[in-house]
Amino acid sequence: MSPFPNRKSPGSRSEAGSAYILVLLVLMVLTVLGLFLALVTQSEVEVGANERTINRVFYSAEAGVTASVAGFLYDDSREAQSFTLMDPGSTIIGTRVEVAPMNQINYGPCNLCEVNQNSQYVNVTQEVRATANRFGKDSAGNETVLAQKGLELMVGIQPLQLNNPVDTFDGEKRP
Description:
alpha+beta; 1 helix; about 35% strand
């Protein structure tokens, strides 16, 4: 037994509270790491949401181009078209697609119908433009554009049998 029971061993006085400081430092580092991971996760969620919005707008513009080409193939229509699609179950978020009238770029004999040269089959190249807007409505009904994407394509269609005359580049009308 020590003659001085309340006396601490030499050196322990300088180490008093060091475990407490060490634990506080470790907790501070873990807190900063947790905040950093939360910030990175939040940023990744926002990037994913933006990418999803941009993809929706792109595919909406592509659907507008497809609808325009289908109208040309089905009833020889080259007219402008407009579509407004609201999200399922939503009355405030939607997509609007505006498709410009198709412009003829090229006209000629069908390359795939070599046996049928000078026949009723032709090769027609059309320019198609579509613009899609993703929008949201506020409580007053005002629209705010969230994203916009324009798409321009040249569509070659062959063999095509036209019912209506088509303008050629030499000014003639051909069947």
